[in-house]
Task: inverse folding
């Protein structure tokens, strides 16, 4: 093998090492605005391959805005977002999706006048339906309920079923990072339990990297490896999920039925 | 009875043309919530394109088979008009996306005026006749000296409309483009999150709408044998009425609305007075909207925009 060849090999190995060390998703110093109202202020966070990371916070703290900003609308006014080392801060939404990020957004947003199967086909759209059959099997194994309902119009399903569909649809694109925005919102406790165990299963069995945004802090921290707390658009705390669960400030604000306003003040003090 | 059947045939023919134009209105409204007021003029432009192509093919190239010439004209007009549709969207509507809601509407009215005046200047203000084509008719039955006939033209119009609508239906319901189109219509933001290029889908919607308007333009030219620069307006408004009548945003609704408007107009002219045929057509719209505000096949709930 020539010297040049060896050099290329060394370069490639270094590149691979660098990638492995690098977080899958990295958000640094990101601020975003709705008009002149700041929704995110200098947010820093990262998600490494194989992790479940959760972002908890009260209603209106900016959690969903961050999810949307990662996907390019609204675009970050300052800061930088990278995915697998690639700068995606100014990319159009659909191109970001094509890089291997998928989202189950707030409010689920299934296509109401399409069948379950068509919704799943939309999830697989960026592969042009290549391994559709195979992936359909996989998501139906995860959510057996969907299998019975492939022909049903998504808009006529229950909230829990729609949530399953939204997650399944996101999985159909074979993402390397799955973003879940409030999958427990408005669902009965038993349904929430089922969905959270499916998320755990995804991470354990398939090694799926998951970024989970939740208001249901207790469940989210139980599930996640690491967590961040967002208050008024600012990250006020971060660390191991277990440590956050035991943190008195987090406990008082999010785990013992603290009201939204109370949560905000406690969070600020903790920072 | 004889007169009734004859008028039924005439009405369905006219309704086919309205239906084809109405689909363009309803699709564009469905996906970006805008009434494309220039659509009627796109239809008119396509009629001129068809006339020019027809003369080119028959006189210069000397194609003697009218059917063959028309088939070529149909395909070429669809392509060229689709290009117009694409260009109009790029130039006049896309830069205004995200602007206030009335901006693209005003832009559409501007495009409409531009197209009509452009054709008037480029082609002259007088009516342009076509050489006679597809003359002759099948006589269906004859009674008391009154022959009910189905002309070759009417036959061709209904046949072409039926075939193209079937193809179009397949495209929207069964193909991945159609799925993406419907997804964008239901939730554009979500479609983008799934990797769909929404701008491209919107462009293609305009292209499809213009191509169907072009079919209508060719058929209109064949049927009436004459076209003028001002012919975009009235058929355009009628087709828009058809789209609203059927429930704007609904594809079967647009076709149904077109057929109803065509039938009402024809029957009114035959049994009552031809001067009031437009009044009759628009009255039907008013009456239906009073009792069914979202149109015949429209969705009851209004999607949040």
Result:
């Amino acid at each position: 093998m020539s010297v040049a060849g060896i050099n290329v090999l060394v370069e490639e190995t270094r590149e691979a090492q660098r990638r492995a060390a690098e977080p899958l998703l990295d958000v640094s110093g990101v601020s975003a605005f709705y008009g002149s109202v700041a929704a995110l202020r200098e947010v820093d966070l990262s998600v490494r391959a194989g992790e479940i990371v959760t972002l908890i916070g009260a209603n209106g703290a900016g959690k969903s805005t961050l999810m949307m900003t990662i996907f390019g609308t609204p675009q970050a006014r300052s800061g930088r977002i990278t995915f697998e080392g690639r700068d995606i801060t100014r990319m159009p939404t659909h191109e970001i999706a094509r890089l291997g990020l998928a989202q189950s957004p707030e409010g689920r947003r299934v296509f109401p006048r399409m069948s379950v199967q068509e919704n799943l086909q939309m999830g697989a759209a960026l592969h042009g339906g290549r391994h559709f059959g195979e992936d359909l099997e996989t998501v139906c194994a995860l959510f057996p309920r969907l299998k019975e309902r492939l022909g049903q119009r998504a808009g006529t399903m229950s909230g829990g079923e729609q949530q399953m569909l939204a997650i399944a649809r996101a999985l159909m694109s074979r993402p390397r990072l799955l973003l879940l925005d409030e999958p427990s919102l408005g669902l009965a406790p038993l349904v929430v339990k089922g969905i959270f165990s499916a998320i755990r299963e995804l991470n354990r069995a398939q090694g799926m990297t998951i970024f989970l945004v939740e208001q249901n802090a207790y469940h989210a921290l139980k599930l996640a490896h690491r967590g961040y707390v967002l208050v008024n658009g600012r990250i006020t705390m971060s660390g191991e999920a277990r440590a956050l669960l035991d943190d008195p400030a987090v406990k008082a604000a999010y785990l013992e039925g603290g009201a939204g306003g109370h949560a905000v003040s406690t969070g600020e003090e903790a920072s | 009875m004889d007169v009734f059947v004859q008028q039924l045939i005439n009405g369905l023919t006219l309704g086919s043309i309205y239906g084809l134009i109405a689909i363009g209105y309803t699709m564009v409204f469905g996906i970006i919530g805008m009434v494309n007021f220039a659509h009627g003029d796109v239809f008119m432009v396509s009629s001129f394109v068809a006339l020019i192509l027809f003369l080119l093919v028959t006189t210069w190239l000397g194609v003697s088979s009218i059917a063959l010439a028309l088939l070529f004209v149909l395909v070429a007009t669809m392509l060229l008009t689709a290009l117009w549709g694409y260009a109009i969207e790029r130039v006049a509507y896309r830069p205004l996306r995200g602007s206030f809601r009335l901006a693209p509407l005003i832009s559409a009215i501007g495009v409409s005026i531009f197209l009509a005046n452009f054709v008037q200047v480029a082609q002259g203000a007088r009516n342009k006749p076509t050489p006679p084509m597809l003359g002759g008719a099948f006589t269906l039955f004859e009674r008391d000296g009154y022959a009910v006939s189905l002309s070759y033209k009417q036959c061709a119009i209904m046949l072409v409309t039926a075939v193209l609508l079937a193809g179009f239906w397949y495209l929207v319901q069964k193909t991945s483009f159609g799925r993406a189109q419907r997804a964008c219509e239901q939730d554009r933001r979500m479609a983008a999150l799934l990797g769909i290029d929404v701008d491209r889908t919107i462009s293609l919607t305009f292209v499809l709408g213009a191509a169907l308007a072009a079919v209508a333009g060719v058929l209109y030219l064949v049927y009436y044998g004459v076209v003028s620069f001002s012919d975009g307006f009235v058929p355009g408004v009628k087709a828009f009425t058809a789209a609203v009548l059927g429930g704007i945003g609904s594809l079967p609704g647009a076709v149904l609305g077109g057929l109803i408007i065509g039938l009402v107009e024809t029957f009114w002219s035959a049994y009552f007075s031809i001067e009031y045929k437009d009044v009759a057509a628009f009255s039907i719209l008013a009456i239906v909207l009073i009792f069914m505000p979202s149109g015949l096949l429209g969705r009851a709930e209004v999607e949040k925009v």
